[in-house]
Amino acid sequence: MNYPIIRVKLLRDGAVLPRFGSDFAAGADLSACLDAPITIAPGETCMIPTGLAVEIPMYFAGLIYARSGLAAKRGLAPANKVGVVDADYRGEVMVALHNHSAQAQDIAPGERVAQLVVTPFLPVNYQAADELDETVRGAGGFGSTGA
Fold first, then answer.
1. Separation in Å, CA 111 to CA 104, 105, 124
2. What does the alpha-carbon distance between residue 15 and residue 110 come to, in Å, rounded to a whole number?
3. How far apart are CA 95 and CA 77, in angstroms?
4. Which of 7, 125, 126, 136 has its CA 20 to 30 A from that of 107?
5. Distance between CA atoms of residues 16 and 29, nearest Å
6. pLDDT tens digits for 119-142?
7. Strand 60-65 relative to strand 112-120, pairing
8. How far, in Å, CA of 145 to CA of 136, rounded?
9. What is the pLDDT of residues 18-66, one digit of tens each?
């Protein structure tokens, strides 16, 4: 299969290209590009550098998600839940890693801290309207469909 190529600039020593953990993984692991370990206190958010700049194609976005094991076992996940890397951004990819646990958590240089999913999106134009088309659901939300 002919997959899109995402160009990645390694910004400094210790930077690691995003890498997939399995053949069918949707997200590629992002690693911490640190000179020394750092500690994230309970309830604290730290900006973790990856040492990478990426060239996301037009009409695509890079979405930064938690690594499930890190979140479930250590309480570490992106503070903004899902980070967005836009196609026109060329700065360093950073992970705003939040410690949801009650214990301080250490991040080692090279440790995998998040995953990057590159996905297409549909560009749209928003237009003000006085009325919207009716649907069966209407304005029901937040559990209105039974869950």
1. 16, 12, 37
2. 8
3. 9
4. 7
5. 9
6. 999 999 999 999 999 998 888 777
7. antiparallel
8. 11
9. 999 999 999 999 999 999 999 999 999 999 999 999 999 999 999 999 9
Could you tell me which residues come within 8 angstroms of residue 27 by beta carbon, excluding any fewer than 6 positions away? 20, 65, 115, 116, 117
Tokens of residue 16, six digits = 């690691």
- Amino acid identity, position 126: Y
Q: What pLDDT does residue 140 have? A: 77
Query: 3-state SS of the chain: helix, strand, coil percent to 5?
Result: 5, 35, 60
- Which whole-number Å values give the CA distances from 86 to 1, 60, 89, in the listed order? 25, 8, 5
d(CA 18, CA 94): 13
